[in-house]
Amino acid sequence: MTVINVTSEIKPLKKVLLHRPGRELLNLTPDTLERLLFDDIPFLKVAQEEHDAFADILRNEGVEVVYLEDLMAETLEQNQGLREQFLKQFIEEAGIHSERYQKILFDHLNAIKDNKELVLKTMEGVNLNELNIEKSNSLIDLVNSEKSKMVLDPMPNLYFTRDPFASVGSGVVLNRMYSQTRNRETIYSDYIFKYHNEYKGKIELLYNRDLPFHIEGGDVLNLNDKILAIGISQRTEPDAIDLLAKNIFYNSDCKIEKILAFDIPVKRAFMHLDTVFTQIDVDKFTVHPEILGTLRVFEITKSDVKDELKVVEIQDTLENILSTYLETKVDLIPCGGGDEIIAAREQWNDGSNTLCIRPGTIVVYERNDVTNKILEEKGLNLLVMPSAELSRGRGGPRCMSMPLIRED
Ligand SMILES: NC(=[NH2+])NCCC[C@H](N)C(=O)O
After folding, report:
1. Using a 6 Å cutoff on CB, does residue 399 contact ligand 1?
2. In the prediction, which pLDDT does 134 show?
3. pTM of the prediction?
4. 399: annotated active-site residue
5. I need a labelling partner for 371 at 20 to 30 A (CA). Which of 115, 120, 166, 381 fits?
6. 361: Cβ below 6 Å to ligand 1?
7. Closest by Cα among 1, 12, 116, 5 to 362
8. Distance (Å, rounded) from C-alpha 308 to C-alpha 42?
């Protein structure tokens, strides 16, 4: 049975991984926004309603929706010994190194018997005021005079399931993330792929969270079964692409023969390649107009020498590059119709970050009405989702979804 199969951005979507935003969003504060990569504090109740509407849109289109929190809870359910290992690793990676606090946190979390509740709690984070700490005379306790303070950070970016790993063919690029705050997110996928009954022993890992260089799923686009596009961005280092390419070409069964590495500006509005363009039909993309000039792209293939790569630099427009590699003339539809103010505004709210369900049918945020109108005029079938709160995390429908299976 196929458990992962993604060889395109547009072939009919069959199964997708989401995370319903939870109480982790309640632990965002103005002081932590920047570190936790948010721009504002979403209203949880409405964010959840919007997210449920997203999931319903997908189900109505015949897509099977699975949730990260359920898969992780099932993983713990199926492997009774794993809970202790998971919690210890989780606490350590959260930066708790004092033995005493490790034990306090372990006992606190381990007391939650229901596995799903436990998983949700790890996502939410732990406040000092929940812990029954007898004040000792230790320096740490004396200095910690606050009453309400997060001792285990929340993971508010989890609802962007696009980023911790990427499905490529029947394999998985399991990422090392750019930021400390997101790196713990990949523990869940690591456990699911290694230990969940449905996945264990069946998934080839093309990259690994232990590797030193960072790469994120928002930068990985499956152009077709042979060509992968990857952004060189704030989130993805060239060194990671180099390692991934060598793994793919020389140490895996992956069918990818060519990687196109797109050099994009290192700034927040461009954080991943999928904030700059997404494919919406066989020959159509939505794009950020700022990327329409000449681009630098590196074509990476196998070299004649084993374990080495052949890299060729290309300088051309996005339109020419995509047309050449997809072997069809492509139409790039600029976000906001090309008007600079509208484009900047709608881009900020992920106007060019759409999720394609099948060629020509895409999920978009309601708030980007200028871009949406243009897309409709171009003949696209838009599935419009509410977006007032979810968009505050700076990610759109593509960021909020990880395809597990697309039809061939
Ligand atoms: N694939 C994406 N574009 N993801 C958007 C992620 C947004 C998230 N707040 C971050 O900064 O990491």
Report:
1. yes
2. 73
3. 0.96
4. yes
5. 166
6. no
7. 12
8. 46
